[in-house]
Amino acid sequence: QVQLVESWGGLVQPGVSLRLSCAASGSIFAINVMGWYRQAPGKTREWVATITRGGSTNYADSVKGRFTISRDNAKNTVYLQMNSLKPEDTAVYYCVVPPNWGQGTQVTVSS
User: Fold this and answer.
1) 76, 1, 6: which is closest to 37 by C-alpha?
2) Which of 6, 25, 27, 57 is the most exposed place for a label (fewest CB within 10 A)?
3) Cβ atoms of 88 and 43 closer than 8 Å
4) ∠ CA(39), CA(44), CA(48), 5° rounding?
5) How far is CA 102 from the centre of its chain?
6) What is the pLDDT tens value at each position of the chain, 111 positions in all?
């Protein structure tokens, strides 16, 4: 069993930056893929970004160039740096270490 604890998101204005973190604990051995998904109000959950243990990253087109995923393997922690936030980035963000999901953290982008 793997537990995932995400940092608090919050309410931010458009254009600002926010960093999410997610720490994994429990039955961990050399986690390979870590990632983030999000679910906006009234929409289906969508993939945001993933990173492998070796540091290879992939991003959804909607966040490419604005979001950066990174990880600290020693701390079993994954980060999501979100820059130039837009109202359409408003969603509950979920950390994922397959097949485990975090509890989700709300990010609201609004003026």
Assistant:
1) 6
2) 27
3) no
4) 50
5) 10
6) 889 999 999 999 999 999 999 999 987 777 889 999 999 999 999 999 999 999 999 999 999 999 999 999 999 999 999 999 999 999 999 999 999 999 999 999 999
